Amino acid sequence: MSSLIKKYNVPGPRYTSYPTVPFWNQDLFSSEIWIERLKENFKKSNSTEGISIYIHLPYCESLCTFCGCHKRITKRHEVEEPYINAVLNEWQLYVDLFDEKPIVKELHLGGGTPTFFHCKELERLINGIFELAKRHEDIELSFEGHPNNTSYEHLQTLRNLGFTRVSFGVQDYDEKVQKAINRIQPFSQVEKVSNWAKELGYTSISHDIIYGLPFQTSASIVDTIEKTSQLNPDRISFYSYAHVPWIKGNGQRGFNDEDLPKNEEKRLLYETGRELFSENGYHEIGMDHFSKESDTLYESYVNGNLHRNFMGYTSSKTTVMIGLGASSISDSEKAFAQNEKSIEKYLELVNENIIPVVKGHALTTEDLILRYAILEIICQFTTDLTKVYPVIPQDELQIRLAELLSDDLIQIESDILTVTESGKTFVRNICMAFDEHLIKNQPKTQLFSMTI
């Protein structure tokens, strides 16, 4: 395994989309194209599968130095009301495009820190969304909760609004690691909010853990996972720390590069966690995710309905996802669109009744074929290569897959590619063999975090 880690530990995308954001073609994209493709797919899919909504709430009271998200650090809570007003105005602009009420199957609050917002503002936000939309009979509402500022009132308010899933950012319980990443939160605090969520009837509680953080060791990972197991969350996200200071600037420079576990040392952290999760009854789902059999994520994986988009893995697939808020990304299956990242410019555009999309990509027929092949690999660990041959000729694809095959990371039988058990560790590398944009436009500077 050590030789494979050395061989395959290269910069690579996380494939929340295909094509990935750095390879979006701005020359063939416009807001008009985005709206046209969105309306087309909405008309086709709203009544059959519904839509998803992602709402980005970007404010945090303090900076976590591991974070790669778009955020604004402030303790000024007067920013809440105008921001929620803008999000609701943006939603109205979208609803005005459609001939029928949107049917919402999935809604997720991300950040930033959604629980930065006061309960009354979150309540106003959700009520405002559903004043203009219907709830799907199988709707799932979820949010990201910071254990340090998620109150009982937050959990109660959102539960009353129909939320059934919450994800708590744990990261690591080691005090030295917490100090380095500026995320001080004792186990007792995570235990308290997790128990509150259970008491209030949340049916899916997730804990996010990150491996590869500064000063992390196998001992600290074992301790973190043992503590996590005591709380028995339904899901666990076990993310590789994405060290991209060239993108995120000083936010990821709260420690030195030599403080980070690398290569085999880092991969040992993952393998240790993976083994412990299995021992505690969790099944590996796609990349970086583990689930109890009782959770909908496992059920969707078994049933072949697992999906991945800019919200990560989801247990229900919709081909329309509308992103609201600064920096949010939307998906209409045949086009991606990203909102203005600057909060001030975002507010300005929305207040002028302009949908605040500033960049995107209109997918070609070839893009769509590869998109769904990559989705099948990262969601089901298999794909039918015959569907890919119109884009990547069979001889060429065999060349690209040869080393993966010889290293026993994949198996191919009757043109069906299957990721092996050892290959699950390198699923990002496997997807890269299908990434025409990456292969044909090799970046001259590092765009992505390391795959391991």
Fold and architecture overview:
The chain has helices at 2-8, 31-49, 80-95, 119-131, 152-160, 175-181, 187-200, 218-231, 245-248, 263-279, 296-303, 343-351, 365-380, 394-406, 427-432, 436-440, and strands at residues 51-57, 59-60, 72-73, 103-111, 134-145, 165-171, 204-211, 235-240, 283-285, 289-291, 307-309, 312-314, 321-324, 329-331, 335-339, 357-362, 382-384, 410-413, 416-419. α8 (218-231) links the parallel β7 and β8. The chain is globular and about 55 Å long. The two termini are 12 Å apart. The strands form five sheets. It has a nine-stranded mixed β-sheet with strand order 9-10-8-7-6-5-4-1-13, sandwiched between helices. Mean pLDDT is 93; it is low at 246-250. The protein has 452 residues and is an alpha/beta fold. α3 runs parallel beside α4 and α3 crosses α12. 39% of the residues lie in helices and 21% in strands. The protein is built from 16 helices and 19 strands.
Question: How would you summarize this macromolecular structure in one to three sentences?
Answer:
This protein is α/β, with parallel strands linked by helices and 452 residues long. It is 39% helix and 21% strand.
Produce the secondary structure layout:
Elements: H1 2-8, H2 31-49, E1 51-57, E2 59-60, E3 72-73, H3 80-95, E4 103-111, H4 119-131, E5 134-145, H5 152-160, E6 165-171, H6 175-181, H7 187-200, E7 204-211, H8 218-231, E8 235-240, H9 245-248, H10 263-279, E9 283-285, E10 289-291, H11 296-303, E11 307-309, E12 312-314, E13 321-324, E14 329-331, E15 335-339, H12 343-351, E16 357-362, H13 365-380, E17 382-384, H14 394-406, E18 410-413, E19 416-419, H15 427-432, H16 436-440
Helix pairs in contact: 3-4, 3-12, 4-5, 5-7, 8-10
